[in-house]
Amino acid sequence: MKFLLTREVGRLARWLRILGYDARYESSANASACVLAAIKEDRVLVTRDRRLGRRHAGTIVGLGCDEVKAQLRELGRQLGLRWDASRMFTRCLVCNRSLEAVEKDSIKERVPEFVFKTQEQFQQCPACRRVYWRGTHWGHVTRVLEEIQKG
Ligand SMILES: [Zn+2]
Description:
This protein has helices at 10-18, 31-40, 50-55, 68-79, 113-118, 136-150; strands spanning 3-5, 23-25, 44-47, 60-62, 100-102, 122-124, 131-132.
């Protein structure tokens, strides 16, 4: 499942990427342009505009809340999706591209020394070359996921 997010729910795009989903952010404020882009790219449109959600049930989700954790919970409920950690950090948070495994030795100069010494697995974005590893964010995101599932 792929997502297209309108401006007002832009923060949610980053979270969907953290969870491994293809989530594109549409900066245009024009609602019909967003709807057309979502249909063309076969994406679920996520918006704060609940009227839009009612008009196009199924392909458009209108969220009623502002807070990102509540939005994730509501989105999961409306789509029957259960967020889990299995795809966590498989996508670049900046470019939305799938990450690729990379040889540890090849990124030595590009990560902090402490990280290089303590981590074994690294992944890289094919577009922007950012390097990802299981750092401190991992624990934080896992805790947020637990909170979402409890609520
Ligand atoms: Zn990237």
